[in-house]
Task: structure prediction
Amino acid sequence: METDVLGVPYERITIDLGTDDEGAVVATLVRRRGDTPSRRAVLYVHGFVDYFFQTHLADFFVERGWDFYALDLRKYGRSLLPHQTPNFARSLTEYYPELDEAARIIREDDGHDQLLVAGHSTGGLITSLWSHSRHDQGIVDGLFLNSPFFDFNVPWLLRRPLMNMVGRTSSRNPYRVLPMSTLGLYGQSLHSDHRGEWTYDLAWKPVNGFPVRTGWLEAIRRGQARLRAGLAIDAPVMVACSTRTFRGKSWSEDVRLSDSVLDVEHIVRWAPRLGPRVTIARFDGGMHDLTLSGKDVRTELFQELGRWVDAFVPPKGTPEISVPPAPEDKADATTA
Result:
């Protein structure tokens, strides 16, 4: 571990992932430990055109007795190397090795016996698929999804021809750039140099985003199709999103009060496909990254998240809730 770009108390370790068609590949695991030793840990995974910088999210968990970890996936943020295409992947399973290694470090090297995974947007889709693929292995004890990328925010009349075109093109030219609208309004709503309140590295998270390429889009399409077919995540899941989707093409104050990236109704529609224990929470005035929304929304989010964690991911050894006997059991006991 070495000191992270965020400074003390944040540390980071580089995970060597070998090579791909562009050359060397790495991922970066960031760690912030609490003052008191803990056997509970959170692993946060960012979204597309993103990386970990949300230190107030780490504050929330550390103050509640959790050690906090964040993973910058390959070709994102701290892990982006000069020879690489930013944020590119041909399959979402490419991210499984760094997730596996991060979980191993957290559990085996650092001695944690409880792991809550938190994923935002594309990270929410990736961690859902990974958690499903690792079910029954005792790796994930809970999953918190912040505006997960379960479907494309495209009118249904355009979706099939667009996806068919992407499928044909991705096999021949996966690096082809698609002429899609940028994330400019959302980026403006976040960064303090524009209309937002947050400061982060614009080389790693540009206001207008990175180009969308056919290979990446096809990887997302396949991952979403697998999720919508139904997963079997054996840990409790909390899915959080805004109550509103922004549909405009130019700036208005509604950008600050709604999800300007995804259709929130898609999130709510597909959330039950994750597994048998899914909680859905919606926040009026929430932006795409709920943790970067206005102060009142953030407060409400963290209160709800805290209650959910206490209820569904309690410390190891917490006594089970006692259940009163059913009426028929009482009757049997009386006549015995």
Residues 295-312 form the longest helix (18 residues). The mean pLDDT is 94.
